[in-house]
Amino acid sequence: MLNTTLALSPDDIMNLLYLTAAVLFIVGLKLLSSIKTARRGNLISALGMLLACAVTLAKLTGPTLGSLAWIGAAVAVGTICGLLLALKTPMTGMPQMVALLNGFGGIASLLVATADYHGRFARTIQTFGSDALAETKRQFYTQTWVWDSNLAIGLTVLVGGITFTGSLVAFGKLQGLSITPTRPIQFFGQKFLIGLGLLACLALAIAPLVVFESPLTADLSDLVNHAHQFNWFIIAICVISLLLGILLVIGIGGADMPVVVSLLNSYSGIAAAMAGFALRNQALIITGALVGASGIILTNIMCKAMNRSLANVLFGGVGGAPKAGSSSSGKITGTAREMTAEDVAIQLDAASQVIVVPGYGMAVAQAQHGVAELGKALEDRGVTVKYAIHPVAGRMPGHMNVLLAEANVPYEQLCDLEQINPEFEQTDVVLVIGANDVTNPAARHATESPIYGMPILNVDQARSVVVIKRSLNPGFAGIQNELYFQPNCGMLFGDGKAMVNALITALAEI
Amino acid sequence: MDPFVTSVIVFVLAIFIGFEVITKVPSALHTPLMSGSNAISGITLVGALMASMNDDFQTLGVILGTLAVVFATINVIGGYVVTNRMLKMFDSRKS
User: Fold this and answer.
1) Does A51 map to a domain?
2) Which of A26, A42, A157 is the mutation pick for testing B, counting most B CBs within 10 A?
3) Residue A424's closest CA among A332, A338, A489, A355?
4) C-alpha angle with apex B44: B42 to B46, nearest 5 degrees?
5) Using CA atoms, how far apart are residues B66 and A165, in angstroms rounded to an integer?
6) Touching A: B residues 55-74, CB under 8 Å
7) Are residues A188 and A244 in the same domain?
8) Are residues A390 and A286 in the same domain?
9) What are the tens digits of pLDDT across the range A60-109?
10) Record: contact B22-A287, CB cut-off 8 A
11) A406 with A291, same domain?
12) Is the interface score ipTM higher than 0.85?
């Protein structure tokens, strides 16, 4: 027989509801594993968020009317900004938007940690200024300034600060703002400064645990001083971490942004989890951990797709001015063959299978609708059309898929690297639009090439390759593409959108 | 058990769940995955609400907390709405 009664405190109930919200997030992410269920998953996840917020608001006791009005206003402003961002950003601007949202997540966690810290600080000053018993004061102090919360506040500020300014710089680079050039900006001692800054922040976060005398033995006046000193530690971590975010990201080139955005995505989750440690809130910890894991997985996929280590992406400074000598490694001989839209249209019309290889250039030229229209026209002529999408094509993971989905390209026609590579040999025409380094055969054989070992789309194995490109300028890695000088490759020089439209017109006239 | 230890257990297990669930997301959906995870990292909103509603009100605390609410709300609303917008495009041809 049960001889204890089931007695859940309001706190227990709240935590169980938070757990329910976390389960809804996990189910939501799980449903993202299929296109068919993904939208439902997003709604379920949103439901979880609604539950978590409702639980929090219901639990808060005795909020004054004034503070509720403040919060209502803040939610209203956030909602309007969020809706404007979400509905007005064109699909080509998704990388920027995700970068910005990462940054907002980071700064929100930073602010939560500092607000929480400030609450403790204010209560301490108040308690110690009162005429309470010395023992009461001491007890208050030990309960308020718990070591793990102290440490977590410092770490939240560190990760949140880096995420915020790092994401702003990434946003600037993706948006093409002039204050943040897309080329990597590196200077002597940059890595040293970053390392020093990180160490300083960690030291400042750990310092209160080490240098402050135990509250059980310290003088009461010292305890107040500790709170004041901790204040300065937090401010220092805040300033250094904001600078660190800038230093870290300005050194990274524009085309490495898929890695950076993924990594900052992870950081925004880690910042939320750390804030959860500070507030002892399991909902924040679980959710932050999920997002942290997601970002790390994506970062890893991106690095593998470029055959580079994370350290090389962060500190390698790839994507600067083409290095003298490296642009022609002696292998490239002959000239590129120029073609006209009419030549290409005839080839396309006669083909039985065409594979389109889109890249960042397609996004820049906003050519996705034209590409989809061309694909449709070819299908109507009985040509099989597929799209080969390299993991790092574009400026963020999945960038090309979103653009082509926007242009109504059937999902089944979008193929990833492993699916499509065996098919190039049986393909009549490959149309490369806006992609460069991911099609360079040098990655397979030129051991001295900076892209050697990177998994590429083997477009050179097709019967014929047509590259739509403005000029023969080298791609992001600063190397010339061998592909352009191969006998089966022809160049269609011009703007991506204009050329695709010319192809559609030429095809219609056949 | 010390609450800190409980939190660490929860954190570590949640990371493993995250890895299991997210490795199954197809690469075509990686952009919606990122914007969707942006939305859920807006869970900081919970912390922001708690921080901005402490009974002992201090001007600086209110300002910090309220700002946190603004940013976290942008994350939540912006993240979910844009994810839904993208997924609708992927899905529209099915119906």
Assistant:
1) no
2) A42
3) A355
4) 110
5) 20
6) 55-58, 60-62, 64-74
7) yes
8) no
9) 665 555 677 888 899 999 999 999 999 999 998 999 999 999 999 999 99
10) no
11) no
12) yes
